[in-house]
Design goal:
This protein is α+β, with helices and mostly antiparallel strands and 93 residues long. The chain is 62% helix and 18% strand. The protein is built from 4 helices and 3 strands, in the order αβααβαβ. Strands 2-1-3 form a 3-stranded antiparallel β-sheet. α2 packs across α3. 23% of the residues are buried.
Length: 93
């Protein structure tokens, strides 16, 4: 019985983690912000490396949007707000 309980607890923890981290910040292309500004904001607020930020900026430019951060809603909300405050179009989905 102990093994079954442990497996159930592991499954519950994994499900909880998936639910809590099922949100993402979507960065949306605009014609206003420079690549440099977008990259700087992704590094500062999303904690991206320079290479990661450059890749996301390029994807946004070519595809119109890109997921730039995943996590819980509570973790992402202040990051998304900071991006919005700095003129970047973003949303949590």
């Amino acid at each position: 019985m102990e093994t079954i309980v442990k497996e159930d607890e592991d499954i519950d923890a994994k499900v909880k983690d998936l639910v809590e981290n099922s949100y993402q910040i979507i960065l949306i292309n605009d014609e206003v912000n420079s690549f440099e500004h977008v990259i700087d904001c992704l590094i500062k607020y999303c904690k991206h490396t320079e290479e990661q930020a450059e890749q996301c900026a390029t994807i946004v430019h070519h595809n119109g949007s890109c997921s730039v951060k995943q996590g819980s809603y509570n973790k992402l909300e202040p990051i998304c707000t900071a991006l919005l405050d700095h003129g970047l179009k973003s949303e949590i989905s």
